Amino acid sequence: MAPTVADISGDNDKxxxxxxxxxxxxxRIQKRPMLRPPIPSPYTGADQKKVVYVSTKTPFISAVKRVxxxxxxxxxxxxxxxDLVDGKGSDKQKLRKLGERTNASTGKEPEEVVLKATNRxxxxxxxxxxxxxxxxxxRVRLRTGTVSVVDDIVESEISTRAETVEGExxxxxxxxxxxxxASFVEVAINLK
Length: 192
Known about the structure:
By secondary structure, this protein is of the alpha+beta class. It has 6 helices and 5 strands, in the order ααββααβαβαβ. The protein has helices at residues 5-9, 11-16, 60-79, 91-104, 122-133, 157-166, and strands spanning 27-31, 50-53, 113-118, 138-155, 177-191. Strands 1-4-5-3-2 form a 5-stranded mixed beta sheet. The two termini are 44 Å apart.
């Protein structure tokens, strides 16, 4: 059975998302910064997620260098200590043991650097993803989604002055905050 016009247009999906109520004329929205966990040091272990937040003003080359530095630290940590001078056995045996150790560690998920961006900065993150996808030693994965963001509703001062002059006693009760949805993109980059 062929899909109908209503199925293709996606009207069913839009009706499930409630529209936010309209604000009165004497109110405006003041955006709060998004809540983020603190960024760990690049030298922390694999248990800490390595995150780089990208904004619209983040320079491309700076972001590339930051990600490259984190990937280099991940590579150093995964190799472990290599000691070919001291120890028992020949150099070939030591290298074989080192290869066995790195092959045994591939059973767990590889450590990755995550680039995050929301709304207008998504374009910058996708440009970085394309750059690292062109690199021979990197693997890139994309994840998309939405996140809830809280905005404050503030009464504008100009309209309050005008209302006091007019002497209107009827005043609408304004909500303190409003929740909106923002789209985000995560780009996970790890070494091959």
